[in-house]
Amino acid sequence: MVGNDRSRADADAYSNADAGGLPKLFVFDLDGTALGGTNRPYARLPGTLCRLLDELAANGCAWATDTTWDVKPQMQLVHASDVASRPAYLIGGAGLQLCAVNGDECVPVQPYTDTMNARLEEAVRKELRPFMQELCGTFAARSFSFNGFWFAMTAADESAEALMNAVERKAREASGLTIVRVPEENRFYAHPAFLRKGTGLRALLEAGGFRPEDVVVAGDEEMDLDMMRPELAKHVICPSNAHPEVKRRVAEMNGVVGGKPYGDGVVEAFRALAEARGWTLQGG
């Protein structure tokens, strides 16, 4: 795979760095993991996390995101935050996009990007668009949105029960879609099933030459479990607000659950993991 020569060289340098036993890559989710709580609106990364990211970069550990956000607003978030370092990679759209970062420029990694875009076009045409048209033409909605790969809909009160039942049936039938119901809020979201966070992370490891034993991943929701697997990352952490299944995975992999929610909990968990593993952060 190719993205950008300078970014590849930087990633190789990270991989070969003598970082006092530190991992070579830290990957984290945004919504509910790095961001949340008093940090709304999501205008910037919390200061505690920014300081950790800069410490890691100064010690030879690269950092990256793996989220549902598009890559462009991710970079805008970085620019608005008090972080001096820059991510080595950004993964967006739940694995749809993978970009190497060269300074402030995002360079799509190829052939991964073209391959995923072609798969998306086919999945939207064959499955997601017909699914959207059927539901929007049948049920009253309070709101709905579609960004090209992610469809979300909240039912109007009078159609809530019928819509949730229909979505439950569709979730069993539509093998090419991932459909997640949130019945307590009368809403659901759907996207092509091939969009998985672990897919993007696997491609990142290949592009940057990183090994699973050199990777730490932080997540909070069930979607993040796909990137919190030992064949992709040997070290996993989460904040206190994480879903019970995420906390269970962290415990199974001998990771750390932070005592605080969101970004502050991620930082707490990372520092506790570093202490447990004997990793040294010079200047931290």
UniProtKB/TrEMBL annotation:
**What organism does this protein naturally occur in?**
Paenibacillus flagellatus
Name the domain of life. Bacteria
> Mind listing the GO molecular function terms for this protein?
catalytic activity
Gene3D superfamilies named in the record? 3.90.1070.10, HAD superfamily/HAD-like
Cross-referenced InterPro entries: HAD-like_sf, HAD_sf, SPP-like_dom
List the protein's name.
Answer: Sucrose phosphatase-like domain-containing protein
Q: Which residues form a coiled coil?
A: none
**What region holds the Sucrose phosphatase-like domain?**
23-270
Q: Which residues form the signal peptide?
A: none
